[in-house]
Amino acid sequence: MKIRTHREPEVYKMSFAASMKIFNLSKSFPKEETYSLTDQIRRSSRSVCSNIAEAFRKRRYEKSFISKLNDSEGEAAETQTWLEFSLECNYINRNDYDLLINEYENVLGKLVIMSNQPEKWSI
Fold it and tell me: Does residue 100 sit within a domain?
């Protein structure tokens, strides 16, 4: 079955779900973090799946496709860093941290595979 929309790849679904978990967890972050950690972690986590969507639409051009996947990788790594801050500041618990870090490791792995095999995604 050929994938027809950017919402179909498993990596998109995984990153979208992880972003929503972060959104819900970040609702309890302190107000003084609203314009720093809260905004940053929400932005970077949403950017992972947003860049996957852009990559999907640019898959006709291999270099553009890979570039957007690379952007998505960077945003996933940034999100992991914000998760570390969230744990160290005691805004999230160890279990939530471990779960989300693992989810982003899986996302990163899938993005690397896609980047290394762009011909499987081209149109």
Answer: yes
Give the integer Cα–Cα distance in Å for 19 and 71: 16
Alpha-carbon gap, residue 10 to 78, rounded angstroms: 21
What pTM, to 2 d.p., does this model score?
0.93
pLDDT tens, residue by residue, 18-69: 999 999 999 999 999 998 999 999 999 999 999 999 999 999 999 999 999 9
CB atoms < 10 A from the CB of 56, how many? Answer: 22
Q: How many domains does the chain have?
A: 1
- Which distant-in-sequence residues (6+ apart) come within 8 Å of 113 by Cβ? none
